[in-house]
């Protein structure tokens, strides 16, 4: 899908390390290279602590990468300063897991939704009500909500307000980090449908982070699988069942259990996940990989193309 599309965001060899109290460095993202194309939904999956939110925070410029670059439409975000840096933030907006925590309970919904527009001086105070009404309509909430306060709203309604606020600046990229995880399944489904509808109508690019591989595969054009700060496989959402990396295959078995010999279920992998404070030499997945060999302990495999839309980081996949 992405071959003929315009590349909108490029992450090249981005790493992020955090200093910890004993003076050591924790590697949350390790030499990540990834592109996002216009109108594409890119899913990012992987177990808790694998670096998904850190990657998103690098994209959002919430902190700089330790090394590597992030480019938006060819412009190196990581080099921007001052007003140009502030302006560049308009194009990439985020929907949080629980946006209500960021809402001031004393502000009316119209002011919450339009706050980003006021921050960038894009509308006058007198235009707030009308603009908020338009944005509420876009997220399928009644316009009357504009005059309400964020208390007394359901989780789904609050999430719609969060989406409306994220859309206010008409971003080109919408980043959703576990945006639906805190919601009931039925509400989650409706929010997902809304996000997909908006993404298609506005030709938005979307980065969608979620633990749930099955859910992500339903809405993503491509999926990037992360393990211990590394991207280990990238493939089309519709081709997920053809995953080749041993880690992705294990994730898939956990999501879609395979039954063997009657009732036995192939579970998730044994073995410890190495500490991000001491990344192993060689393949990051070596301690849990059923196919690990000597080479895996010596050399780190790079992410390489298998076919046009499919890449994997494993010595034994070609
Ligand atoms: N500000 C920070 N300082 C130190 N370590 C951090 C910081 N932020 C994240 N980490 C560590 O970086 C690693 C990656 O964390 P991150 O939050 O990106 O994972 P995640 O994939 O989003 O996990 P989850 O699915 O639980 O949200 C973890 O080991 C985490 O403890
Ligand atoms: S490189 Fe080796 S340890 Fe890593 S995923 Fe491939 S087979 Fe497993
Ligand atoms: Mg996270």
Describe the structure.
The chain is of the alpha/beta class. It has a single domain (7-103, 150-312), classed as P-loop containing nucleotide triphosphate hydrolases (Rossmann fold, 3-Layer(aba) Sandwich), CATH 3.40.50. The protein has nine helices and 14 strands. The protein has helices spanning 52-59, 82-88, 109-119, 128-138, 155-167, 185-202, 213-219, 246-255, 294-298; strands at residues 7-19, 25-37, 41-45, 67-72, 75-76, 92-95, 173-177, 205-209, 222-227, 230-236, 259-260, 264-265, 304-307, 310-312. The strands form three sheets. It has an eight-stranded mixed beta sheet, with helices on both faces. Strands 2-1-4-5 form a four-stranded antiparallel beta sheet, with helices on one face. Strand 7 (173-177), helix 6 and strand 8 (205-209) form a beta-alpha-beta unit. Helix 3 (109-119) crosses helix 4, helix 3 runs parallel beside helix 5 and helix 5 packs parallel to helix 6 (185-202). It is globular and about 70 Å long. The site of iron/sulfur cluster has 12 residues, from loops.
